[in-house]
Amino acid sequence: MTETRLYIDGQWQSGATTVENRNPSDLGDVIGHFAQAGAAQLDEALAAARRAQPAWWAAGIQKRHDVLMAIGTALMARAEEIGRMIAREEGKPLAEGKGEVYRAGQFFTYSAAEALRNQGDLAESVRPGIEIDVRREPVGVVAIISPWNFPVATPAWKIAPALAYGNAVVWKPANLTPASAIMLAEIIARQDIPKGVFNLVAGPGREVGQRLVESPLVDAISFTGSVPVGRGIAAAATANMTKLQMEMGSKNPMIVMDDADLDLAVAHAANAAFGGTGQKCTAASRLIVHEAVHDAFVERLVAAARALKVGHALDQGTQIGPVVSEGQLQQNLDYIRIGKEEGAELLCGGGRLERPTPGHYMAPAVFAGTRNDMRINREEMFAPITCVIRAGSYDEALAIANDSAFGLTAGIMTRSLARASHFRANMRAGCVMVNLPTAGTDYHVPFGGRGASSFGPREQGRYAAEFYTTVKTAYVAAGVPE
C-alpha cells in the first residue's frame, strides 16, 4: 500500500513528512509510508470544520441518517478487506479484525437511527402564557483522538455519533495503524457531505495532537488512550473550557468463586486476558481466585495459556497475534522482569517467540503468588500477561477487586445469585460482567468506567448524546389576544 494521504476540507493531501508502517507479524513487510500533517494543515482542517458544521446541521436528520447508514453498510460489506489490513498492520488475528470492522459498521447504522430519534421535549411553564421547548443541538467541532488497538471500531463509535448529531469532525488516528484509518476515511469521504465536515489529520501527538487539543476552534475532545496522555489533554483543554470525554487506563479484575464452573471460568479468563494479545482496555489482568479452587484453576489456566497458538495474524488457526511494536514488546518484557523481582511466580510464557517470519511475538504469561500491591497488579500493562491473586472469601475478593485507581470493567464467576447481585451493586466499575469475560461489550448501551479509567460523559448508545450535543431551553410567550 502506497497511500500517504490526509483528508482536509474535502481534498486528499500529502503530508509534511511521512512515517513507515511495518507488519508486526513479518517485519520484512513494509505496508507503506504514511502522511504526517504539519501545523498549517491542522489549522486548515480546523478552519474547514468550523465553516462546514452549520451546513451539516442544517442538512437535517434524514440526510444524516442516510449518510451514516451508507457508511455503516459499506464497512460491513468490506469487513474482510479492511479486517485483513488491520491484521496486517496491527497484528490482530484475521477473524478479530473482520469482526472489528463489522462492528464498526454497526456503530454507524445504530447512530443513523439515532439521528432520527433526536427529539426534544415540551414543558409547561410555571408562568401562564409561556411555552417551553427543550432540544439538543450539536456541540460544534469535535476533535477525535483514537488508539491503535481498535483502529476502526474506536474511531467509529466516536465519529458516528458526532456526525449523527450534526457536528464536524477532525480526527487524529494512531500512527501505528495509518492504513486502516485511511480506509475508513475513504468510505466517509465518498459520501455526499459538505466539504470540511470530516477531516483526517495524522501526525505526532506532541505536535499535531497537542496543537489540536489546545485549539480554541475545538468545542469538544473525545480521546481514548493512556492516563498520562489523558491528563495532559485535560490540562491543555482547560484553558479553552473545552468539553472532554476520555477513556483511559484499566486494571480489570475477574473474581473466581469456589462455586464457579471451573471450565467456564478458565475459558473466560483466558479469553479476557489473552484475546487481542492482551492489548485491550477491557482485558482481565487480575484474576482473584478463591483459595478453595485456586490450585485447580491455576493448573487449568496455565494449560490453556500454553495451548494457545501464537503466530502470524493472517495464518489460519492463529489465536494470538504479535505484539503491535518492538517498543510495546520491550515494555511487556520489562513487566515480566518486574513481576519476578517483586516475588511473583512466573508459571508459563513471558518470553519472546521465534516464528517463520520475524515479528514481535510473545508467549502468553501467567503469574501466580501475586499481591495486589505489586506493580504488575497496579499498572496497566497492555500485554498478554495475567496475574493470579489468592483470596480467602468473597468479601476479601471484592475488596481486592475494588482496590485500584481504575474502574472500567470487572467480572465474577459464580453460581450464587446472591453473590452475583451483591457484586453488581458493590463493584466500583463502569461495566460489570457475571459469568462472562471482562472483554466484550454491546454497541447500543453505554461504555465507560470510574476513577482513572474515564472522564466525562459515557460513550456509545443513547448516552452518547450527553457528550456530542448541548441542551437548549427556549421560553416562548404566547401571542397577546386581540
Largest sheet: 7 strands, mixed
- Structure classification: alpha/beta
Question: CATH top level of the largest domain?
Answer: Alpha Beta
Given as residue ranges, the uncertain stretches (5+ residues, pLDDT < 50) are none
CATH homologous group name of the largest domain: Aldehyde Dehydrogenase, Chain A, domain 1
User: Count of helices?
Assistant: 15
Strand content: 15-25%
The average pLDDT is 96
Labels describing this entry:
6-stranded mixed β-sheet; Aldehyde Dehydrogenase, Chain A, domain 1; Aldehyde Dehydrogenase, Chain A, domain 2; 15 helices; 482 residues; globular; 7-stranded mixed β-sheet
Topology diagram in text:
Elements: E1 5-8, E2 11-14, E3 17-23, E4 26-36, H1 39-58, H2 61-77, H3 79-90, H4 94-116, E5 121-124, E6 130-138, E7 141-145, H5 153-164, E8 168-172, H6 178-189, E9 198-200, H7 205-214, E10 220-224, H8 227-238, E11 243-247, E12 252-256, H9 262-274, E13 284-290, H10 294-307, H11 326-341, E14 345-348, E15 352-353, E16 361-362, E17 365-368, H12 375-378, E18 385-391, H13 394-402, E19 406-407, E20 409-413, H14 417-426, E21 431-434, E22 450-451, E23 454-455, H15 465-468, E24 469-477
Parallel strand pairs: 7-8, 7-10, 8-9, 10-11, 12-13, 12-20, 13-18, 17-18, 20-21
Antiparallel strand pairs: 1-2, 3-4, 5-6, 6-24, 11-23, 14-17, 15-16, 19-22
Helix pairs in contact: 1-7, 2-4, 3-4, 3-6, 4-5, 9-10
